[in-house]
What does this fold into?
Amino acid sequence: MLYPLTEEEKMIKDIARKIAKEKIVPVRAKFDETEEFPWDIVKVMADADLFRVFIPEEYEGLGMGVFAMCLAVEELSWGCAGIALSYAGTALGTFPILLYGNEEQKKKYLPQIAGGKIAAFCITEPQAGSDALSIRTRAERDGDVYVLNGLKQFITNGGEADIYTVIALTDPTKGIRGASAFIVEKDMPGLKFGKKEKKLGIRASATREIIFENVKVPKENLIAREGFGLFVAMRTFDNARPGVAAQALGIAQSAFDAAVEYAMERKQFGQPIISFQAIQHILADMAIKIEAARSLTYSVAKAIDRGKGDFSKESSIAKCFASDIAMEVTVDAVQIFGGYGYIKDYPVEKMMRDAKITQIYEGTNQILRNTIASCILKEKRKAIGT
Amino acid sequence: MKIFVTVKRVPDTGVPLRVKSDRTGIDREGLPYVINPYDEYATEAALRIKEKIGDGEVIAVSCGTEDSIETIRHALAMGADRGVLLKVNDEITDSVQTADILSDYLKSENPDFILMGKKAVDYDRGLVPAYLSEKLGFPLETCVTNMEIKDSGFVLERETEYGVEIIEARSPLIISFEKAKFEPRFPSLRGVMMAKKKPVDVNEISNLPANSTNILSYEPPPERKKGKIIDLPFPDNVKELVKLLKEESKII
It folds into this structure.
């Protein structure tokens, strides 16, 4: 076996695949059409304890970390990347608390998430996408509270989540060095939700604007210290990006499985199209890319679980590679299906639409290439001592 | 309250079965196994009784070979408290034998309820609940599709051709389940982890009770004949179809 799994890891993979197969696949086309939020399936995931996977045991979790989370995301995304995002987006929203929350914050929020309350991470603003450093949302200290004002854009799980981790400026004079991270609860007065975006893919996922109008957040909900916001956000992304890679991997595997099955069934010129080398080579290339992406994603996720340190470069590499191949593989799957691939009666056009987002969110693949390049430069300079 | 639920290890229903070339049985090479789906409804029902009453013990019992422990663990992962394997060396295909082994064990256990699937999907006989009811002297309600627990007792539903039968029932009782209106729960991760620590007693059945039947041989189902496409314009195609249905397939 290429990837030996522990008994617990195998259990997670099996349960997530079972949910994908029995609960997600039969309804994914419906959710893609209606853009409803899949609360029933979130409940199934929660009842199966999937939200406990990445929460430490002291806070009612299973204490299994990033690799196990990736296994769950991969299998759920094999069913539907949009539905899986309710889960993966919660992991993203939880990392700031997991990594830098204090004991009280962990005790208060992590057991809720372990039990299936979903979370969301809020950094992007209308004018601050790739240029995340130009956020404007303010958090002004007023006695025992911070007062938040501003607008967040494209927030995954926005409006559905109970727990929001938010990056806002406590000291705008210092620019992004004056940013801090906060935990905001859904029912705090002044927290409002704007329009739900209509999207190309991952349509079962809720993406909303989030409006802060004098939201009074208790000072106890500041994560780490004032001015640590950028640091919290960067480390959050380092830990969460293998999850995006796993999501891309799940989409790619699903498109590949569908393409192989179809190529064996579909007859042209009197024989199944899989007998043609033109099709065989496309399938072989798809398999090569998927296996390379899986190997890379698993290695990076396991490295994150093993050690502390800076994984910016590795997690960016995994996310870029897996999402790029997911796009290529899904385009190829549609090609193998031919005309049938282009219509909604078959699942691969949806996978192609879903794959696109993985190249865009949690850092576009261009921005991540900047990150990778700057890491390379840093390493080189360190090596030659300049 | 002691609630027993019987569970059987059966080949995965999604996999086509093949008869062995010597016709002595099913080819089990590489076959994936699952808990009998009707037993999953019975297990769910047992757990609901316990949860509603807030007291009691759910015991998963299987009569089978050592591999059946996996099936018992599935019920434990769903939430059953402990398991009992009535271990035999070879698979039993005789319903009377199975019922004898189950009743020998159950009669000394004072069960309040015995919940079962209406049949196992491997041999499809559906005889064990009736035999067990006879041997234990317990009443039996078969093919139950829903269950409600009230203060006065249990209200069971059976779907019949003329409507839904609603039955009030009390312990002791055997209930066999049809595909029910409620969904069996997924085993949770914590459930699976805890299931490993829950006790499973293994009772070796050294003296097999007498069998009532012997299977002589297995015949594979006949291969499906190729379909026929009538490639004629209307109304000739309809005429041809009617002719074929009358003369060839003799359906009309």
